[in-house]
Design brief:
33% of the residues lie in helices and 20% in strands. It has helices at 11-22, 81-98, 134-138, 169-188, 214-223, 243-256, 276-287, 311-317, 325-336; strands spanning 2-6, 26-31, 48-50, 64-67, 104-110, 118-121, 125-127, 154-158, 191-197, 199-201, 229-230, 237-238, 240-242, 263-268, 274-275, 293-294, 307-308. The chain has a seven-stranded parallel β-sheet with strand order 3-2-1-4-5-9-14, with helices on both faces. A four-stranded mixed β-sheet has the order 7-6-8-17, with no helix packed on it. Strands 10-13 form a two-stranded parallel ribbon. A hairpin with a 3-residue loop joins strand 6 and strand 7 (125-127). The longest helix is centred in the middle third of the chain and has 20 residues, at 169-188.
């Protein structure tokens, strides 16, 4: 398979690139080497195109495109909303327009398209909580109540059939990319697999950049001898998935595209619920650092709980994560040594 891998020099992209090569595929990487992510911008060479996905180009001799390139991060403030839209929405649109005869696309989406995860009320069944209120968060009321009766809710695992509810600029741009890709597939007869990554961690995690996830932020604090600072009460539920498991899901999805429908979305997570506080504690133990402190601070654009069911990916494509959190953090610690 001849693959164009956008964002192939990034954290996830490097692991996907390695996995593709190990499977015997021919890979061309397209990466802009954004200065807020990469310290150096290399010269183009065979197998590497240094450039922006927003620049129109032609792709000859390509069977499949794996589109990872994006501006990522928290997206909880409006200061860079235009950059999210330009880099992610416009960038995806220009890429789709440039695909020519290519008909197979793997699109890197994100859990953030769901907003809050699944919640159930004992009286009203499955419900979608409303936007988080500043007055609740200031008072330390972090759990969203039932929007109908105000009763406590039970968080659960979100499935791909859930109604999207993006709650920040990054989330909106990733969902827009899914919609644009689905439109491309309908109009061209192409096939798109959208992979909704959950909290990805592992060797090569970015450090001290806007792209660093919570596990990377905690690790950087510990390596500097600082105490990890946990927002809210530390009870936020997440699904942490190892980057090599993500890479395996990407290449598996790419190989399966010829048998796929026009558009199919998959969650990519372990299905195991872990709280932010637990991750901070496990990392502190692994690094021999100070125990985390719970600050009660919050970001209004954050969601409280978002954990996935990845049964569709397991059942339809045979994917299975090889790492649980303990073995994954051990691998991360070895890679840092």
């Amino acid at each position: 398979m001849r693959v164009l891998l956008t964002g192939g020099a990034g954290f996830i992209g490097r692991h996907v690139h390695d996995q593709l090569l190990a499977e015997g595929h021919e890979v061309t990487v397209l990466d802009s080497f954004r200065p807020d992510v990469h310290a150096h911008r290399p010269e183009p060479r065979p197998g590497l195109i240094v450039g922006d996905i927003r620049d129109p180009r032609t792709f000859e001799g390509i069977d499949t495109v794996i589109h990872l390139a994006a501006k990522v991060g928290l997206g909880v403030h409006l200061d860079d909303i235009d950059d999210y839209v330009s880099s992610n929405s416009l960038g995806t649109a220009v890429l789709l327009k440039s695909l020519g005869t290519v008909r197979n696309l793997v699109y890197a989406s994100s859990m953030v398209v769901y907003g809050e995860g699944r919640y159930d009320c004992d009286e009203h069944g499955q419900v979608a909580p409303g936007p988080r209120r500043t007055e609740d968060l200031d008072a330390g009321r972090f759990e969203p109540p039932c929007p109908l009766c105000g009763a406590p809710l039970r968080p659960g695992l979100v499935t791909e059939d859930a109604v999207p509810d993006p709650r920040n600029a990054y989330a909106a741009s990733k969902l827009n990319g899914e919609h644009l890709a689905a439109t491309w597939a309908r109009e061209t007869g192409g096939r798109v697999t959208a992979l909704r990554f959950h909290n990805v961690y592992g060797p090569g995690m970015p450090r001290n950049t806007p792209y660093a996830g919570v596990a990377a932020i905690f690790r950087s604090m510990l390596e500097r001898g600082e105490t990890p600072r946990v927002f809210e009460d530390g009870g936020q539920r997440r699904d942490f998935v190892h980057v090599r498991d993500v890479a395996a899901a990407v290449t598996l999805s790419a190989a399966a595209l010829p048998q796929q429908p026009a558009f199919r979305a998959y969650n990519v997570g372990t299905g195991t619920v872990t709280t932010i506080g637990e991750v901070a504690t496990e990392l502190a133990r692994a690094y021999g650092g100070p125990a985390p402190i719970v600050t009660g601070e919050y970001r209004l654009g954050d969601v409280r709980h978002i954990t996935a069911s990845s049964d569709r990916l397991k059942d339809e494509l045979g994917w299975k994560p090889a790492y649980d959190l303990q073995t994954g953090l051990e691998d991360l610690l070895r890679s840092a040594g």
